[in-house]
Write a structure and sequence with these properties.
223 residues, alpha/beta, ion transport, Potassium channel family protein
Length: 223
């Protein structure tokens, strides 16, 4: 029996259950969301049958097919199709036609992404490029983790620089000197603590730092 729109307020349809789409669908399911997975490949449909709420083998490039599956009742959709650009674009068009309010789509190039935006995607994701940049930041060993947002803002996990050791954050004045904000401090064998002016930083501490991407990059390079 079909669910009502209100029942599907927190539901997501994921189209394309390959490596990217499958990972998104799996994470959404583990977070407790109702997930409808759609793929033309019967092997992928079978593989995800026991994990997702619903899995259907269908051609998602056709709006009438999406309507029959009740996709118009979903508020969010993720298009995980990447290598077949035509199918990716046609799927976004079909989702827009049936009235899905929030469409996320994977792109394999900047040109592909621009086409997706023009055909109805509200959010375009470049997973390969994003992962490549993240690995580039981590491979030097200066950063333990790195997350960058679209507006040039980043959050970094990095080792505390020597100049901050055995001082409070107020004394080391990292914010005024480097233009970054220390969000928290993690010490070995201790719980994470949110940073305060009187928080003392010791050798071996890990800092969670936020700020403009270029500033946190320069700060992490101090270690």
């Amino acid at each position: 029996m079909a669910k009502s729109s209100s029942q599907r307020a927190d539901s997501v349809v994921v189209i394309g259950l390959g490596r990217f789409g499958g990972a998104v669908a799996d994470s959404l399911a583990r977070l407790g969301h109702d997930v409808l997975g759609i793929d033309e490949n019967p092997d992928l449909v079978q593989a995800w049958a026991d994990t997702l709420t619903h899995v259907v083998q269908a051609d998602a490039t056709k709006a009438d097919v999406l309507r029959r599956l009740g996709v118009s009742e979903f508020g969010r959709a993720v298009v995980g199709i990447g290598s077949d650009i035509e199918a990716s674009v046609l799927t976004v068009l079909a989702l827009e036609e049936v009235g899905v309010a929030d469409i996320w789509a994977k792109a394999i190039s900047t040109k592909h992404g621009r086409i997706l935006e023009r055909t109805g995607a509200h959010h375009v994701v470049y997973p390969e490029a994003a992962m490549g940049e993240r690995v580039a930041h981590l491979v030097t060993g200066k950063m333990i983790d790195f997350i960058e947002f679209d507006d040039g803002f980043a959050i970094v996990k990095t080792n505390a620089p020597r100049e901050a050791w055995d001082k409070t954050l107020s004394e080391s004045a990292l914010r005024s000197r480097y233009g970054v904000t220390v969000v928290g401090v993690k010490r070995k064998h201790s719980d994470f603590t949110y940073a305060k002016p009187d928080t003392i930083v010791e050798s071996g501490d890990i800092l969670i730092v936020s700020g403009a991407t270029d500033r946190v990059e320069k700060f992490a390079a101090l270690t």
